Amino acid sequence: xxxxFVFIYSLLIxxxxxxxxxxxxxxxxxxxxxxxxxxxxxxxxxNENRLDSMWRKEKNWNLGFSRIDGKDxxxxxxxKWAKWDYDLDRYFFSQMKYPPQLLAKNKAGYSVIMFSIDxxxxxxxxxxLKSTHKDFDNEVVRLIKELLHCLPSRxxxxxxxxxxxxxxxxxxxxxxxxxIIADSIEAEKLKHLWVDWQIMSKFQDGKxxxxxxxxxxxxxxxxxxxxxxxxxxxxxxxKIDSYGEVAEVRVLRSCGIEAxxxxxxxxxxxMPRWTPETYIGGKGEYRSSNWTVPVTFSNN
Length: 300
Fold this sequence. Notes:
4-stranded antiparallel beta sheet, 3-stranded antiparallel beta sheet, elongated, alpha+beta
């Protein structure tokens, strides 16, 4: 009886071996297929990096900022965008919509485009310098037109000035697909997080005491006008526009002496530029903000 059982058990093991071998072969085929796919993507990325490097070396364009008058740029302020600072490469990469028909064909290429930035920090006068496909140009032009205002460039005297800006925008299909996947993962993460996209406007080092010190250092008043009062307090409002300039000031609560109120308002109006409130979500933008500044007039 034991012999019969051993014989049957052996037959079952032998009959199951082909199925196990088939399963192993199937898994190996899947792993091999994935490896081939990964190697293929790796080669695509390497090739795109090579193309990008080659195109950048070919260029003889003056990328980024340039003065319209052609003078030296060493002593002026460059245009600055809310989310992208002084470099628009990240803007074009993150906001680009690849032309569908070119993406389907894995068509790579680039556009080099120059545009002017006016004294309001807005783009205009778009000029295509070099291109590999008109659809790439159309996409870059769309993105330039959708740029929100930057902090405009300023000359040696701090006066706003028009300037030229030149961008090189590569279109690399696999890099684009990688970005879409990364964006999707990031969007999923953000669903479970609370993110503060707002950065408050600030004056110089950002400390509130710096604002008050700036005012007190310039205040000139006769304490004897307080009479028997030890001190008087006034509250004042300053609107900082999206360019960081003091656009509007007013008295919220008077200190009781109109001349002193007016002096505070004049000091606020004459403040150097602030860093405006900045929204860093989406495409990023500068926003206006309002500050309330308390000022105490003391009798000692």
